[in-house]
Prior knowledge:
Elements: H1 5-8, E1 16-18, E2 21-23, E3 27-29, E4 37-38, E5 41-42, H2 44-55, E6 60-67, E7 80-81, H3 88-99, E8 104-110, E9 126-127, E10 141-142, H4 145-164, E11 169-174, H5 179-184, H6 199-202, H7 204-217, E12 222-230, H8 239-252, E13 257-262, H9 280-290, E14 294-296, H10 303-311, E15 317-320, H11 322-326, H12 330-335, H13 351-355
Parallel strand pairs: 3-6, 3-15, 6-7, 6-8, 8-11, 9-10, 11-12, 12-13, 13-14, 14-15
Antiparallel strand pairs: 1-2, 4-5
Helix pairs in contact: 2-3, 4-7, 8-9
The structure holds flavin mononucleotide.
Amino acid sequence: MSNRGLERFPRLFEAFTVGSHVLKNRLVALAHGTGMVHDGLVTDEDIAYWSELAASDVGLMIQGGITVHAGATLRHRNRIEGYSAAAIAGLCRRCAVAKAHGAVVLGQLTHIGRESTGGEQDQSAVAPSPVRSPRDLFAPHELDQMEIADLVAGFAQTAANLQQAGYDGTEVHGAHGYLVAQFLSPATNRRTDEYGGDAERRLRFLREIIEAFRGRCGRSFLLSLRLSADEETADGLTLEDSVAIARAMAAEGAVDLLNVTLGVRGTYVKDASTPKGIAARAAKRLRETSGMPVIVGQRITRPELAEQLLADGCADLIGLARALIADRDWIRKARAGDATAIRPCLGVNQDCRCTAAHVERRI
Length: 363
Ligand SMILES: Cc1cc2nc3c(=O)[nH]c(=O)nc-3n(C[C@H](O)[C@H](O)[C@H](O)COP(=O)(O)O)c2cc1C
């Protein structure tokens, strides 16, 4: 295939160094689960999915849907139970098929906290405070400090399992109104102990996770932090709150990448009514104020826009989820200078969300 697109999209196909890794281009497969996971373990179908996605030629792949604690295990068990030693062999295969295509590979560490709604789990949903999700009938159980310490250990154990499985690093899911974000956000954290009360104390849970992670995995294992720069919800995190969080992370030097998104559960997979590149402004502000390398995603459907966002300094890396589901050859077509042949994501959230409903029933 020709490389005519390199002239048209020079920035997209430039290498980028993060930690000790060189990404072959600026394109990132954003985290998503496949649902093709049974009993908390990967299956052959799941492996085939990631292999095909990696063949699309992304520089960085973030593999989603990895649960960090037994207490967050879902009834249908279609997310990888990454905290368990039993998951390591499958994770090894999942990672290897992506690396075979030259991608740098991260696994996303997820605990959805109070968003485990409608009886998805056998245990009660947990959260920093008993503030009911608008998507659920019941308030979550308020975590005590021993339970918090156990969760921190779960994040670190899961990261260590991913490291053992050959991953290049992890992403802490601190976005979308899930557990880490529930601690960061004034809308969901009403605690008065060391874990709440002001912005600094709301950061404590995340800091403890990062410290435990670095203690188990060392400095060279990559760490990306996914943040909802604006939760777009009453009393939720605003862009200025997120600037403060990103600055604190930059000052502490423990995070390698900031992955910027907007919204909470129910609003973060932006549909066709959302302007393209909706998170660009927030990403640019976080990049400029923190100096950290930034990934931006959400409704980036075409290479022309992706190239422009890099040219405008909005981000260092471009995140794609549905664009690559809609057309696995997106990157190859862009590189070949055949961008008009790309089948763009329409933002209808039908097939990808339903395929994925076998996937993740309510994201
Ligand atoms: C089926 C599906 C599953 C997803 N699962 C996750 C996930 O596990 N973790 C996460 O951070 N985001 C998840 N997302 C959100 C994507 O990472 C991405 O932020 C979102 O789809 C917007 O990007 P896009 O417009 O390129 O699709 C998921 C999205 C889809 C469509």
